[in-house]
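Ticket #4471: structure export looks truncated?
Reporter: QA, pipeline team
Priority: medium

Steps to reproduce: submit the single chain below to the structure queue and open the exported record.
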Amino acid sequence: MLSPRVERQELERVMFSPLASLAEESKGRGRVEPECEIRTCFQRDIDRITHCKAFRRLKHKTQVFLQPEGDHYRTRLTHTLEVARIARTIARGLKLNEDLTEAIALGHDLGHTPFGHAGERALDEIISEDGGFRHNEQSLRVLEKLEKDGQGLNLTFEVKNGIICHTGDTKPDTLEGNIVRIADRIAYINHDVDDALRAGILRQEDIPQEITCAFGEKHGERINTLILDMIQESEKSGVIAFSPPIAMLFGTFYNFMFSKVYKNMKAKSEERKVHGILSGLFNHYASNPDELPLDYQRIVTRDSLRRAVCDYVSGMTDKYAIYLYGSLHIPEAWQVR
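Actual output as written to the record:
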């Protein structure tokens, strides 16, 4: 009798496109370990990422709007889940490996700092002489060197490759990784429009008519249009991509969002404070390494003090960074008796 894992691997050979990444043909893990009887290697990676501490912290990390007043703005966690759903739908439409796609999507932003890209820019400047900071590289570092008391999660090569290559100049080695690379952009452009409308930064009539005519006026319509176009174009070309007309309009959409939202002073008015908070935390722990948690003190001996401090600060949630900065640098209230 075949185990559930072996049955699944045989199904993959029958159901998937010849271009799909098969679990049975994975390049494996950095440390060899026995196979699970129930789950394929990529399914195990999904579970390892979902249950790790860095994944849980995403719920209190900024997506675009810092400390928004309201319950319905996206966080880094809800962004990650939206990317995973969009990416998995595309993978299903192309008969590629949905499990590999989901694992990459769930892990792609684990290295993000508190305060979103503002925090990333701040940390990159703070440690520029030590190699700088890029969230995709930090995501891989979290998974390989920080989780499980420094042992890492020992993920498969394909998942790690998709995570580090989800942004930047280097494309992933798998089609599944390339799906996540574009699904990330589909998700954030569209949910950032939704959040900007909710915040009053945009009005529906501000969105260029060529965008609404091509993609639709509603959040779901825009995503559906982009997913369908990518599936149809990728089936024809064998390359994960939009059709040329949609790709051009998507670029126009991004440029509109960059000028109206990502550079909007109302949305970004608090970002000037981010550098002060993160540099204050960084400098404190760089000067007082004995105050670092023990897990990070071990990194000092393995890598360097500044990298250990960067790991600690970048892993903080927005709320914890603000609380810790206040406890270190702001005098407590006191009463004269």
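Status: closed, not a bug. The export was complete when the record was re-opened. Leaving a note from the reviewer for reference: The chain has a mean pLDDT of 92.
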